[in-house]
Each structure stands twice: as C-alpha cells, then as structure tokens.
Amino acid sequence: MPYLDVRDVHKTFATPRGRTHVLGGASLALDDGEFVAIVGYSGSGKTTLISLIAGLLAPDAGEIVLDGRPVSEPGPERGIVFQQYSLLPWLTAHDNVALAVDAVDAARPPAERRQRTGELLALVGLTSAAGKRPRELSGGMRQRVAVARGLAMRPKVLLMDEPFSALDALTRATLQDELLRIWSERRSTVVLVTNDVDEAILLADRIYPMTPGPGAVLGPPIEVGLPRPRERRHMSLAPAYQKVRHQIVDFLRACRRGGAA
Amino acid sequence: MLRRVVLPLLGLAVVLVVWTALSQTVAPDIPSPARTWQESRRYVLEPFFKDGELNQGILRLAFYSLVRVAKGFALALLIGTPIGFMLGLSRTFHDTFDPIIQFLRPISPLAWLPLGLVIFRQSEPAAVFTIALCAMWPTVINTAVGVRSISQDYLNVGRVLKLSRFTMLTKIIGPASLPYIFTGYRLSLGLAWLVIVASEMLTGTPGVGGFLWQEYNSLVYSHIILSVITIGAIGFLLDRLMGVVEARVKAS
After folding, report:
1. B156 contacts A56? CB cut-off 8 A
2. What pLDDT sits at residue B181?
C-alpha cells in the first residue's frame, strides 16, 4: 500500500452560476521519501487537489490515506507551503517559523524549540533577516520563510502549491536549486504542484500531468529517471530530459485539444 | 502652504464674516464674534479658575467632561470588544443577538439617560452608563466585521498547525482584526463625546455640556458659543489622537 494514497477523489463547488465540477476522480500514489510533481494548466484544479490532501477541503467522493490513516482534517503531518506564502504579516520571519515549531514541538523545552527555529531559518538562508516582517522581505525571501515553516511542521508529506510561481525567473531558479539541496539532505516526501514543466522535471522523481478541468483527472505518471544529484546546467541537454518533457507537453496538449473539440 | 494654511484660514474668515452678519441682521440675540470673545476671555485666558460649581474655566469644565467620557469609553470598549469577537466568531451567537443589537443601536442617548437615572439614582453613574451604552456599537460592529473578514489563508495556517483556540485568538484572529477594532474604537470615542454633552445637559452635572445648559438658562448666549467651540475643538483633537493611534496599529 502506498505511503500517500489518493483514490478517485471528486470535488464540486457550488458557485452563484451553478455547480463547478473541478475534480472528476483524481488518483495518485506516493512512496515514502518520493518527490512527486503534478503539472497542469492554471485553473485545472491543482490547488483544489492540494487542499484536499491537506484536509482543508473534504472530497465529495473518494479517499485520501496517508501512512495508513484516512485524512479527515488538516494537520501538521501534511505541512503545506501556500502559493501566496500566507505568512502572518504581524509576525517576524522568526516568529512565523516559531509559531509552527511551538505548535508541533509543544512538548519540548523552549530552548530546544528556539534552537530548532534558528536551524530552520539557517537552512533556508534567512538567519540575518529573522527579525524582519514579511512586508520588509522580497518575494523570494518570503517564500523561503514559508518553506521553513512548512518544514517546521515535521511533515510526513510536504505539500507545495505552486510555491515559486509568483517569483521572477532568476529568483525562481535559485529557490528551485535550494529546494533540491534541502530535499537531497532530508529526503522528505513532497507533492509539488506547478504549471512549470521544467521545474517539475528538475525536482521530481515522478510527474503526474493533470487534465484541464472541468472534471480534471491525473494522467498516467511519467518517471523522470534522471540521475541525482541533478544539475540544472547539464540536465536540459540530456536526451532523457527532452523525452520526458515531450511526453508531458504532448499529453497536456492532447487533453486540451480533446477538451476543446 | 496655500492648501494647508491659507485656504483653511480663509474658510475661517468666511465663517466669522457670516456669523457677524447674522448677529447684526436676522439673529440679534446672538452675540458677534467680538462680543463673544470679550465676554468669554476670562474662561479662556484663565482656563482653570473655579468660582462655583458651574462657573469655572473652560478647560477645567472640559476636564470634568473628558474624565466622564474616558470612563464611559473604557466601559464601552470593555463590553463592546468581547461582544464583537463573539458576534464574529460564532454563527449561533450572531443569529441570537444580532437582531437585538440592530434594534438597540439607533436608540438615542436621551432615551437611555432617564433609565440610567432610575437604575443608579445618581447623575454621574447614569451619565457613564449612557455613554457606554451609546458608544459601544461601532466597537461591537467593527470588531465583528474585522473577525469575520480575516483572510481564509491566515485561518488555514492555524488549521494546519492545529492551534488551540486560545493561540488562534491571540496569534491570528486578534492581530488580524486589530485594524478594524481600532477603527471601531475611534468611532466609539467620537460617539462618546457626542453623548457627553446631551447627558450633562440633562443631568446638570459640571462639565462643558452642563455649563452650556446653565448659561442658556441664565441668558449668557456668548458662553453657549464658547461651549460649542470648545466641544468642537476637543472632539476634533480626540479624533486626531485616535487617528494617530489607529494609523500606528495599522502600520505595525
């Protein structure tokens, strides 16, 4: 049985203009320590799927099981890095991370918690900006805080919802490299949602393409199969890279054409 | 310079001219600006003298009123803020009490005051009671709106972290709604200052409102104008003061 098992989940939202069928039976399976990416067009239901796994929304049908336990509510074991960062603007970078550390490690002594908060900030390279409020930080730094907060939750699976989509291309590349480094050190289980095919190939072990909604489903997973550690510069030239890239893009294009017809 | 100093002074001059013209034509009982100043100068130049209970320097009278307002305002915040939180947090509480609040809100201070006198049998607590009752509604409503309009993103952070109700309140809901709460406080203070005049006039207690009513009864109309100007100036200062506090809170 997979570590994280999403089985045939459906989700429909009631809107003023009628019901919107967002997910029409999405399934995915993850092993412990795997990095999986979900790639799809904007608005296809990726955020909905992440929210379902996080337990922030409940599916209309289907089941989500993590480590043998069905997901029924949000919890820190499914740590999440939100698309809009969702840092608390009245707390400093340090306090935003400390909020998560204090909540998850409540049983440990305060000194130990403080130390761990410091370690997490150092891990994302923010030690010198620890005392700043989110609005004093650049977009890239804010997302680093959000990543540190996500890791602070000691998640069994870290959910990332288009974490770098709001950043400029250079900052995005830097943060992708850092995420790659952090993941190589810790081998945590990650579900990354993105609309950036190259980001998915660089980071993930396996990629699920998502069909455009309404009634989105996940296509058959594509193994990336590129050796780790990966290096951005060498990778794009590899034939395997090109092959995976074409597979994903062709699948998404075919879905779109099919959907439009 | 022109927009911040010259134009406002020009506006003031226009008002003084119209006032003078009115006092010399259609309203001969109203003293002109010059006569008002002459008859009021002692109250302004020696603002803290005390000759009798209702014959005191204007700032001493204003001080009595301000103390009364401070008591009523503090009571309004103490009662209004928790009610606002409960309205914003609990659907059941909202549905139970919102109709009553909407019903109580428009009731005039003049209607509450006699009730206060019946309950407390003394003018001072009755006045404070009236101020608190009338001034707390903006605090109640704004706090409730602030709590209800917290971004779902912030609440989701709390849900994922499984924060306790207390931590949720102190770390997320409280700080997030603080700007709304302070807008409510500012409006409440403005209302409290409006109510003080009415309640002092009716109870005859020493203060700007009490002084105003007494001078009306003794036909010293220039002192009515002095009181009106004082009430306006202090109201303006209070609003500015709360405006600064509010801006501080919103900036932090």
Report:
1. yes
2. 94
